[in-house]
Amino acid sequence: MKQQLTRLFSFKNIIRLALACLIIFGAYKTFFPHKKDIMPVVLLINRYPMTPEDKQFLKNINPYGFLLSIPIHPGLKLPDLKKELEEVLGRKDFLFFIDQEGGAVNRIRHFVDGFDAPAPETFGKLAEKNFDEAVRQAYEYGVRTGKTLKDLTIDVVFAPLAEPSAGPKTHRKSRYFSQNPETAKALADAFAKGLDDGGVTPCYKHFPGAPTETDPHQTQQEITDSLDTLRARGVKPFEEAARWNCLMTALAVYPAVDKDTTSIFSPAFYRFLRKEIPYQGLIIPDALNMEAAEGADITTIGARMNKALEAGADVVMPFFPFSSSPQWMEEQLRQIRTPQIKRFQKKVHLLKRRN
């Protein structure tokens, strides 16, 4: 027995065993390579055609997806871009996002000439005369929009804008379906169902509503509604968002929830959102370059991203200036801490490309 053990643990046998382990490990790594973590960010395609530096940056970062049509790249064919990005990233599960509410927010026109996109307010006005007909038309418009976007290879649409307006003086009032929360909810839900049936995923926005007379791109926002008012006007229109696992938050201070902190940087705000709907899907704050997101100093964007993710956001949109260098953008994105990146890996499956 002792001699057998001695032979088994001889120097030559140990070397053979080590070599066998290395071969097995190498084969495992070849056939089951470690997947690179996906960064919880949605980026813009700042330049097109992309430079080698742009492509290396995207490969290094490995983003969750891309928001299209900002900036506008004339002549860009989205299927060609998708194929190119698949080669750059070495994966096919990234997502294409787009803003497409209708009216003033009509990004489809950058890819499809003459696409008819009525403003949400159009359906609200019709609902005052014929509610059922307005719901039907909102749904059909959603189907038409969804089919068009799917043909363009879009995956997720930042719509419907489900929040009710604040009245006649609301900034860009035509973006809102209605001042009445029940009407806004019914039309938003119909439009979202149409988008889904058309082949794309709707992403409700901007929870729990921040309609004011000023533009959040240019001014800080404070919504002084009580908790009861927020629940009645701000939460109810977003209840169906849970069906599609995608929701965009507003950029504002809600003193009834957290009097000191802008919504997207407030852990209390995310707890409120997840409890009140209730909601377990992806939470995406509105663009972090907006004045409402703690000022316009773009040099703080890296800290903003990490702060939002640590508070409870799942994915962020930095909106780097179009002239930003790939090196600077990567420096900002590297400020996102590892725990937030690891946490996101458990949620990347919630939104998927459709066949």
SSE layout and pairing:
Layout: H1 2-8, H2 11-31, E1 39-44, H3 52-61, E2 63-67, H4 78-89, E3 95-98, E4 100-102, E5 105-106, H5 120-129, H6 131-151, E6 156-157, H7 181-198, E7 201-202, E8 204-207, H8 227-235, E9 246-249, H9 267-276, E10 282-285, H10 301-311, H11 326-333, H12 338-345
Parallel strand pairs: 1-2, 2-3, 3-6, 6-7, 8-9, 9-10
Antiparallel strand pairs: 4-5
Helix pairs in contact: 3-11, 5-6, 6-7
Compute the separation of the termini in Å: 62 Å
What percent of the residues sit in helical stretches (DSSP H or I)?
40-55%
- Please mark out the parts with pLDDT under 50 across 5 or more consecutive residues, or reply none: 24-34
- Rounded to an integer, what's the Rg over CA atoms? 24 Å
Number of helices: 12
Quaternary class: single chain
Query: How many DSSP E strands?
Result: 10
Biggest sheet, spatial arrangement of strands: 1-2-3-6-7
Shape: globular
Order of helices and strands: HHEHEHEEEHHEHEEHEHEHHH
Structural class: alpha/beta
Averaged pLDDT, please? 90
For the sheet with most strands, the description reads: 5 strands, parallel
